[in-house]
Amino acid sequence: MEKTKKISGTKLYRRYLSIHVRSVMQYKASFWMTTVGQFLTSLNMLLGVYFMFRRFGSVKGYTFSEVLLCSSIMLMEYSLGECIARGFDTFPAMVRKGGFDRVMTRPRSAVLQVLGSNIELTRVGRMAMAVVMFVYGISHSGVHWNVGRVVTVIFMLIGGTALFCGIFLIYAALCFYTLDGLEFMNILTDGAREYGKYPVNLYGKRMLQFCTFAVPYALVQYYPLTYLTGRSDNLFTMFLPLLATVFLIPCYLLWRVGLRHYQSSGS
Amino acid sequence: MTTAEIKKRGAYQKYASFFRLRFVMGLQYRAAALAGVVTQFMWGFMEIKVFLAFEQSNPAAFPMTFGQLAAYEWLQQAFLAFFMAWMMEPEIFDCITDGNVSYELCRPVDLYNMWFARSMALRLSRGLLRCFPILIVAALLPEPYRLMPPCNPAAAVWFVITMLLGLAVTVALCMIIYMLTFFTVSSLGLRLVFSCAVEFLQGAVIPLPFFPPTLQRIMERLPFASMQNVPLLIYSGSISGAAIWRAAGLQIFWLAALILIGKTIGRYAMKKTTVQGG
Q1: Is residue B5 scored above 70 in pLDDT?
Q2: B49 touches chain A (CB under 8 A)
Q3: Looking at chain A, which runs of residues are DSSP E strands?
Q4: What ipTM was assigned to the predicted interfaces of this complex?
Q5: Residues facing residue B272 across a β-bridge
Q6: Considering the entire predicted model, what is its pTM?
Q7: What are the pLDDT digits (tens) for A4-25?
Q8: Sequence-ordered list of residues with C-beta below 8 angstroms from that of B265, at least 6 positions apart, any chain
Q9: Which of B186, B188, B200 lies at the smallest CB-CB distance from A44?
């Protein structure tokens, strides 16, 4: 008998991706509507920041374009994270409907399958808004660009995306115990996107400590930003975003523990 | 009792029972409410921190006292369910798009009034369930985060009156969207644009006094300012004296206008709607 060949993980993921692209294209109108909606929600955020700066001029020494740079990078990180890890975000529904039992019976990694179950392509709307803001921020903030700073932005995107994926992973892992989504986790995801528009040190010293050691938002936002805007020459801050990817390890361990604890919802 | 009187009482009781039904239903979701309270509390806290940072950078540009801003933010979070336009009822959209609305039309009640009553009840129950924990904790916080008491007894009374009016305006606005849904296959786009615009124009992103004066004057006259803007500013004394009467009058005007528009669209929709079999 012919032995079926096992395809590699990345190839499997690519196949999942192509399925999602094709399925989205079946409902083009709905796809564009949701995308426009995503765009508009971020527009509200931008307008809010704009009118605040119009009145106050600056905040804690940051100019409007510097804040735009900060919020647009955060928004990109969040959009990428949500696009990739949307499967974890919708995981409670999967557990409740018993879809996860099917995942368990397949001889592939559960994480890969959950990731592949939902790839949210409508997030390009938010991404588009972020790119517009980013371009404006770059052209007006007077950042002196060099190789180091470009690399820093790339590191920020990698670290931030990993961080948000990690938070979604925790969200899904907790669901093994509660069988339901936990609304307070929104503070760490939606809250971070919403309030990450301003550099973390704006919220005071204690918030900065929390965002450095507990959930490392500051590593992908505040510290590299000080390097980008020339507030600090410390090259070390450039690599801090990569350190944020370490956050994925405890998240994954929590997932593993949860997985062992999993009992089917029975439906 | 004459038959006319019985009929009249019957009509009132019908909508009252729809109201009661939804109100009790809304009160059932206590666990969800508790989770919501924690989230909303954090939200309010972060929002106040942002304004605090701006105030410290440029105190002269702050258009109200900081206590007034804190009160605005806490009340907005506490009564979120009253004023957020995006909290529409998915069941109503579903029944319009899948045709189940025909069952509703068979009932001897007016569709507009019925949906108006149930939307009011649902928002009221959700809001009342969630507001007290937020209000109590916020009132006990240290300065500058503390929620101050209403600036005077008259303002407290006006706050309650204008808040109920604001709630009714919110529902009347949502009713227009429900009625417009009869004319579209998918209401998703309409809802998205509507809820984003309302959120911004009603002062949920930043309060109206923070906008430039000319823009603020225009926004104050739009129906969206008659939602949360009026009661929240009256509470803290940002709107006082004769301005209260003007604001409340504008609320009543917009409420009447929006109901009229909603009912007209509704009547037109009923004439046009054909229910497919199946």
Answers
A1: no
A2: yes
A3: none
A4: 0.87
A5: none
A6: 0.87
A7: 667 788 888 888 889 988 888 8
A8: B176, B179, B180
A9: B200
